[in-house]
Amino acid sequence: MYDNLNIKNSIIITGGNKGIGLEITKSFLNQNYTVIVGGRSQIKLRDKNLFFVKCDLTKYSSHEKLAKIAKKNSSNLVAYINNIGISEWRKIERVENKFLNKMISTNLISYFWGCKVAKKYIKKGSIINISSIAGKRGSKNNSVYSATKFAVNGMTQSLAKEFGSKNLRVNAVCPVLIKTSGLVKALKKKDSPGYRNVQSFLNKFKINNVALKDFPKAKDVGDLCIFLVSNKSKSITGQCINLDSGVFPQ
Asked: Is this model's pTM higher than 0.85 or not?
């Protein structure tokens, strides 16, 4: 299954099987990378340079497995993109241990394991953590998700300092609301700002907050990741870059 990876640069994308992650996967395939994707559900995409591994990315061993597959068949693993995540709004009264553990293990601990494995297996390259604008500012009923993304941004900045001498850059991408099936599902749930009418919420948010004409698209995240992996960004590390159409200028 993993026989022909040695020809190209390889890259690992966690959660690259759906949503924003799928668009990141497509972006790198279009740039002729070999892409190794890890996730819980099968990817609905076929490409001779794409290799999917079904796994639980909250476990360190799953990240090790992805890296070993890449390194066994390619001498040039150049990037690790931590992308898996769960979004859900909940009032503090409805937050309990099971929910906290699920959110933190998925949105934060999996990223730690990805970064740890990336340092071990990448000789020179880039780590990208897909974070969120929620990691820059809080919002109502979003304390748990926001806390995990603030933590991802702090981890990104700290590891950039720690990994710099190893020729390993670490950056985060912080998108605003990008309309994926996962976001729509989260917005339909109780306590979310779009609970009663998702599209109405998105329309009002765009009118009141977006400086440009529209929200960013998932492909924009992929394009930014391509840049951050490339040599054109060789002096950029420790940055948590807003991709938000001007919602939160900094």
From this structure: yes
